[in-house]
Sequence to fold (223 residues):
Amino acid sequence: MSDIAARLKEIRETLPDHVRLVAVSKTRSVAEILEAWQAGQKVFGENKAQELTAKAPLLPQDIEWHFIGHLQRNKVRSIMPYVHMIHSIDSHRLLKEVAGEAERAGRRIKCLLQFYIASEETKFGLSEDEAAEICRDRELIHHPAVCIAGVMGMASLTDDQQVIHKEFATLRTIFRNLKEVYYSDNPEFTEISMGMSDDYPVAIAEGSSLIRLGTAVFGSRNP
Ligand SMILES: *Cc1c(COP(=O)(O)O)cnc(C)c1O
Fold:
């Protein structure tokens, strides 16, 4: 068994049934991704539009591609043929762009609202007020080409487990509040995307439904 297959097997054995694994394949070669695919992994995550559009056509069609990085509006059209879910909706304008381009491409794209939960400065993510503005946009909420399927967040880069627990708990609370206020009758609002290689056990304990693992699957990344 290859290293990638062995790591995938080990990870899968620890995952509860309700948690799905997104194998983060940024910087990885087509050959490495194929190795994971051959080991049964069908969901992959990329964080750059150019990288996704370069690799996706070379890989099996049954791969479910997730976009997990900051997405510029002028790149939305290029990923439409491939992307299944966008984890990183960080503005109202971006979601409108995705809706327009998805409609044009005849696609229906699942979208997650990205929140800013880490105590450290990061550039991307919605505040709860900005999210409320999106959720009150009835045209978007009922748009046929996008489906708001949940939330995404990243914890601080720290070894302090309590801080990480707290940040993931914050995201779960945001999810529950949104669900209660805006999505109580929407069966598709189900996803909490949180947890990376260093913190995914904590994320699962706090209710994650999608974990995004790069290093844990493929080994360490060359810068
Ligand atoms: C790179 C990346 C990951 C995976 O990081 P690892 O530490 O390699 O597991 C997860 N989420 C996002 C948004 C990323 O950019």
